[in-house]
Structure formats: C-alpha cells, structure tokens
C-alpha cells in the first residue's frame, strides 16, 4: 500500500467506527510503510523475543512484528482502536491485546501489563523482552524510563518519540539537553538516534519532528550501579537546577541528612572546585559521587 492509500484506508476505517484521532492520546499514525519496516528491523526481532508494544493503534506495526517474534503483547488505551485492531490481528495467535492504560501512574507501569509480559516470558526458556513501539508522545518519557525499573528488564527498546526527547536521551555533559533523563538512560543503556522524521510521515501530522531511538540495555553498566533507585532519585534532585553550582544543589538536596561541612568534604574528595556545575558531570563521575554521598546518608530519599 502506498502512503496515500494507507492514509485513506485509515481515514475511512476510523470514520466508519466513528473515531477522530485524539491528540490527548498522541494518536498520530505512521503512514510511511518504509519507516514502519525500519522500526521493526531496528528491533532486530527473532523467535525468542517477546515484544511489548504500547499503542496498538490500527495494528499495522503489531502485525509485522508478530511475523518475526515469538509473542507480541500490545496495549491500547482507546476502546475504538482496540476493536479495529482486533479485527486486523485476528489471524495472529501469538498476539495478546490489552485494552488498558499502559501506565498506573507517572512512576509505574500498569501491573496488569507486566503480569502478561511475565507469563509470555516464562512460556519458553531463553525468551527476552523487547519494547518496540510508535509511542504516544505524552507518555513516552515515563514508558521508557519506568521500563528500566520493572521486574522484567528489557533487552532493548526501539521507539518513535518526539525528536526533542530523543536528543535529551543521548545528550552529553555541558549540552543544553543534558538532563537527569540522559544520565538515567545512559547509565544503563547504549542509546542512539536511528532516524529523524518530519511530521509528514504521520497522519494526522504532529506539530513536532520525531525520531526513532534505539536503546540497548547494557547489563554490565546496570550491575555497576549498586543502588539504582538511590542513584535515580539523587541525580534527579541535583539536576533540578543543573546550571547552578553543584555545591548548592547537593546541599539543598541533602538538607536534614548531611551538614554543609559533610557535603564540602565529599566535594573535596571528588576534586570538585566551588565553580563545578551539575551539568558538567558525566555518568561515571556521577556514579562515583553518588556512592560517596550514599555512604554518608544511606537512608536519604526524595
Ligand atoms: C502514536 S500512536 C501509534 C499507533 C500505531 N502503533 C502506529 O504505529 O501507527 C499511539 C497509540 O497509543 C495509544 N495510547 C495513548 N496513550 C496510551 C496509554 N497510556 N496506554 C496505552 N495506549 C496508549 C493511542 O490511542 C494510539 O493508538
């Protein structure tokens, strides 16, 4: 099907079932089939893979993935789209469709989703989880970052997301996009932007550019973080004002737990001068620094 045919097919089917794409659910459908294929091939799917897709939409990406993976668990919040995709996916017995909000809240995946994913992973030895999705942009950040805290750690995540978010994920120290999210993702994964895409490859067109990002979890990096939740919370709190001097950020984050003298002592051990700013610290330095703080304040939390 050409782009134009895909678009008119989609418009017609959605009209028949009385659906107007809703921007609140990030309903921008990928109509360039070459790019749909590129997402699937970037996922590098094989017979041991359980794919998690958030946002079934019309099910076109789902169907392609079901031909390559062992199982696909796909989640759709919209009841009308869920019905439409159910028709499209009737012939695939390795697709489990869930009509749910994929997130329980901003900080947690919906446990029902993880339960089904766990069942599929346990059905055969050697299975691994891969997220492959054209994500709804309004929930892309919590989906990517929360999946790293779930009981089922993914092997990799390939997703279409807002270009700005992709740039934040791969950003390096000193750059305008370097943030707590960059540190959280890069501390555990190898992250790369596969492709930048203009609004015209979607229907309806979003207001922003998009990108396909490929995030491969690196088990060695993950194991090098002794307390991931502590690291996550500490980095988040000192990056709240990342351009400020590090000393002010740490003192404020650790108040009630560490005195200014204790903070200064750690800064000195790290050779951080008074003009060190949070935004200049790379991931490895942040890991070492967090461990020194954690040794003095193990009970701290946000
Ligand atoms: C960008 S569209 C992608 C649709 C389809 N996979 C495609 O590639 O064209 C995002 C989809 O996610 C669904 N969605 C939005 N928020 C969701 C949530 N919290 N949980 C599950 N699905 C959600 C939307 O209804 C929409 O179908």
From TrEMBL:
Amino acids binding S-adenosyl-L-methionine: 28, 30, 55, 76, 101, 134
Catalytic activity: adenosine(1518)/adenosine(1519) in 16S rRNA + 4 S-adenosyl-L-methionine = N(6)-dimethyladenosine(1518)/N(6)-dimethyladenosine(1519) in 16S rRNA + 4 S-adenosyl-L-homocysteine + 4 H(+)
Primary residence: cytoplasm
Enzyme class: transferase
PROSITE patterns cross-referenced by the UniProt entry: RRNA_A_DIMETH, SAM_RNA_A_N6_MT
This protein's UniProt keywords: Cytoplasm, Methyltransferase, RNA-binding, rRNA processing, S-adenosyl-L-methionine, Transferase
GO cellular component: cytosol
Entry's Gene Ontology molecular function annotations: 16S rRNA (adenine(1518)-N(6)/adenine(1519)-N(6))-dimethyltransferase activity; RNA binding
Assigned EC number: 2.1.1.182
Residue ranges annotated for the Ribosomal RNA adenine methylase transferase N-terminal domain, each copy included: 35-219
Location relative to the cell: Cytoplasm
Family in the record: Belongs to the class I-like SAM-binding methyltransferase superfamily. rRNA adenine N(6)-methyltransferase family. RsmA subfamily.
Function: Specifically dimethylates two adjacent adenosines (A1518 and A1519) in the loop of a conserved hairpin near the 3'-end of 16S rRNA in the 30S particle. May play a critical role in biogenesis of 30S subunits.
Protein name: Ribosomal RNA small subunit methyltransferase A
Naturally occurring in which organism (per UniProt): Aeoliella mucimassa
């Amino acid at each position: 099907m050409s782009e134009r045919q895909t678009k008119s097919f989609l418009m017609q089917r959605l009209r028949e079932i009385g659906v107007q794409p809703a921007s609140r659910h990030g309903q921008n459908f990928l109509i360039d089939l070459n790019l749909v294929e590129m997402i699937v091939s970037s996922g590098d799917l094989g017979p041991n893979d359980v794919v998690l897709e958030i946002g079934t939409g019309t099910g076109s990406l789902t169907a392609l993935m079901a031909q390559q993976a062992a199982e696909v668990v796909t989640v759709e919040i919209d009841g009308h789209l869920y019905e439409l995709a159910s028709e499209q996916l009737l012939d695939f017995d390795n697709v489990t469709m869930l009509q749910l909000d994929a997130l329980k809240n901003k900080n947690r995946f919906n446990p029902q989703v993880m339960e089904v994913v766990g069942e599929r992973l346990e059905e055969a030895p050697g299975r691994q989880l891969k997220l492959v999705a054209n994500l709804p942009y309004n929930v892309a950040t919590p989906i990517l970052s929360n999946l790293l805290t779930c009981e089922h750690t993914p092997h990799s995540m390939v997703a279409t997301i807002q270009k700005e978010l992709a740039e934040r994920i791969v950003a390096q120290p000193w750059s305008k996009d370097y943030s707590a999210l960059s540190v959280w993702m890069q501390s555990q994964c190898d992250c790369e932007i596969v492709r930048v895409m203009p609004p015209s490859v979607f229907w309806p067109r979003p207001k922003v550019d998009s990108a396909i990002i490929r995030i491969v979890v690196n088990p060695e990096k993950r194991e090098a973080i002794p307390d991931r939740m502590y690291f996550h919370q500490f980095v988040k709190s000192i990056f709240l004002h990342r351009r400020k001097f590090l000393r002010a950020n740490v003192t404020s984050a650790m108040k009630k737990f560490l005195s200014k003298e204790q903070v200064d002592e750690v800064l000195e051990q790290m050779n951080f001068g008074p003009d060190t700013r949070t935004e200049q610290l790379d991931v490895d330095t942040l890991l070492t620094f967090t461990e020194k703080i954690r040794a003095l304040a193990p009970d701290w939390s946000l």
